[in-house]
Design goal:
globular, eight-stranded mixed sheet, Rossmann fold
């Protein structure tokens, strides 16, 4: 990957437009038209998705997948699919692309995207994909860059306010905290049968399993944070905003119009039109905002986040000072303190750590260790302590993390029992150690630990998916509703004892001509059970009525209560 700032505009094309314009698909096709290529994506989930698409086209031996927590690297890969942060610098491909380039303005991760915008180039072709709001910034920073506008393939229309219980099927409801997502999902379970749940903290495996329930039609609703706004390609007809404020890591603030567009734009895929609106008591959107969202017209991004890339590793103070440099170009703004810098600053105050930072190599190692992501989000100090412990081990006599210590850290996450919050905590914990295990020079048996941590993550992901489904999906109600919607005739059985089973779900009992439903509740489960039973009982009751009419007199008896009994 070339980082020559003097050739910024060399074969650079910016493909800009709203969601649902086929930008990522275009990048894949362009990449495969070259002998070698690399694409940087904003999420591990998306990197895995694109990796699988490319593998299907050119074979597993030709494609590498590089993310912080996962590395699949054949001997001589032609194509590299990476998260933007994990893009290797020692690869110089013919083609290079960065997706969601508007994230260069993001307060937390923006400096990485800005660095790639300014410095990452393919030898023959470079594509930057993203929102139209980036046009002015790219034109100023990369004079001579080419631009391609991609119009949205389908229409997006505002549908106003609707109660959660009145939302149409195939809706995505978007909130901005786990608590809000869970509360809404529980309401939908009671009233509409259930919902898939998507949170940014979920592993790709759990997210994929939840999304699959929605895509397969097992549930008609998906409740998500704004994680849904980035790359999740769903068959959503309507997006309902259950909130328009979020915590951005420092303050609660209103979402910008372009951010709302990224979310609302999930409605409608390919040529299918979509709608968006508000719910959960949120006031109707302002007319001018609606016009912006429907017409994809937003204020251009004015400032990009920036951080120095040519760092001074001669001493620890020199490194800290170089990270405080300010950019020379007006369009750029020095990024706020991110997790890696916060960890470095905290450790720089520890005498035990400072005593180990005695030369250039030790400084570089410390900065390298500070790149461990803070998946656990307990506190800055807690994360710094973990990073410091890893660094002390690496600066020890063996220069490696002791396997006994690493095993003790991994063991915490091995248990798959517990509720959603417990499993989510363990998953965040094991993701940290998966990242560490993928640093092959930090552990003696790195390959073993990569496989072990991945195995634990998969088990936790499956367990979390099961807990989410148990809590937020009424399996019987959802199955019955799906059956009534998709089938002309439901599969039903009436046992000898009168038990009525529809689509493998027990819904009640038939006693003579009287049906006793399993539940009298007025929730969706009760209504779905009775509705499904009604479809299959009509024929059975008709048959019984005909048999009564044609029965002989001796088929009827008088019981002790004076009631006439047939059979």
């Amino acid at each position: 990957m070339s980082f020559n700032t003097e050739t910024r505009a060399r074969q650079v094309t910016a493909v800009l437009g709203p969601t649902n314009t086929g930008k990522t698909h275009l990048a894949i096709e362009r990449m495969l038209g070259h002998s070698t290529g690399m694409i940087g994506l904003p999420l591990r989930l998306l990197a895995r998705e694109v990796y699988e698409k490319v593998v299907a086209r050119v074979g597993v031996a030709n494609v590498a997948l590089i993310t912080g927590e996962e590395k699949i690297k054949p001997d001589n890969p032609r194509y590299w699919v990476c998260t933007v942060e994990a893009m290797p610098r020692d690869v110089d491909p013919d083609f290079l692309a960065i997706d969601e380039i508007q994230l260069a303005a993001d307060p937390e991760r923006g400096h990485v995207f800005t660095d790639r915008l300014l410095n990452a180039r393919g030898r023959q072709e470079t594509l930057f994909l993203g929102a139209g709001t980036m046009r002015d910034a790219i034109a100023e920073l990369i004079p001579g860059a080419n631009f391609i506008a991609r119009p949205r393939l389908s229409k997006l229309t505002y549908a106003g306010e609707k109660k959660i219980t009145r939302l149409p099927a195939r809706s995505a409801i978007v909130a901005f905290s786990a608590a809000e997502v869970y509360e809404i999902a529980e309401l939908i379970r009671r009233q509409r049968g259930g919902a898939a749940v998507v949170l940014g903290a979920l592993s790709p495996r759990t997210r994929n399993a939840q999304v699959a329930m929605f895509q397969n039609g097992d549930v008609d609703f998906i409740v998500a944070t704004d994680a849904i706004g980035m790359g999740l390609n769903l068959d959503v007809d309507h997006v309902a905003l259950a909130a328009t404020r979020k915590f951005d890591g420092q303050v609660y603030r209103e979402l910008m119009p372009a951010e709302l567009a990224q979310i609302a734009g999930r409605a409608g895929r390919h040529l299918n039109d979509g709608t968006f609106g508000v719910t959960n008591g949120i006031p109707s959107l302002a007319p001018e905002l609606i016009e912006q969202l429907e017409n994809h017209a937003f204020e251009p991004i004015k400032t990009l986040q920036w951080r120095a890339r040519d760092l001074d590793f001669s001493t620890l103070p020199a490194l800290r000072e170089s990270l405080r440099r300010s950019p020379r170009e007006q369009r750029l703004q020095r990024a706020r303190m991110s997790d890696d810098v916060a960890a470095l600053e905290a450790l720089a105050e520890e005498p035990e750590v400072r005593a180990l930072v005695t030369n250039r190599g030790a400084v570089m190692k410390l900065w390298d260790v500070c790149q461990i992501p803070d998946y656990r989000k307990i506190s800055t100090q807690n994360h710094a302590e973990l990073v410091g412990q890893v660094y002390k081990h690496l600066q020890g006599d063996e220069g490696l993390i002791p396997e006994s210590w690493f095993q003790s850290q991994v063991a915490f996450a091995e248990v798959t029992e517990g509720d959603i919050d417990t499993l989510s905590t363990r998953l965040a914990h094991i993701r940290t150690w998966t990242f560490v295990a993928n640093r092959s020079d930090w552990l003696k048996n790195a390959v073993f630990w990569q496989e072990r941590t991945r195995e634990i993550e998969d088990k936790l992901s499956d367990a979390l998916h099961e807990r989410l489904t148990m809590r937020f999906v009424d399996r019987r109600a959802s199955a019955l509703v799906k059956g009534m919607r998709d089938k002309d005739e439901l599969t039903a059985q009436i046992a000898d004892d009168g038990s009525v089973v529809v689509e493998s779900h027990h819904v009640g009992k038939l006693k003579g001509f009287r049906f006793i439903p399993e539940t009298q509740a007025e929730d969706l489960d009760g209504r779905a059970s009775r509705s499904a039973a009604a479809q299959v009982l009509t024929r059975e009751l008709g048959m019984r009525a005909r048999r009564v009419v044609s029965a002989k007199a001796d088929a009827f008896k008088l019981d002790r209560k004076g009631q006439i009994v047939w059979k």
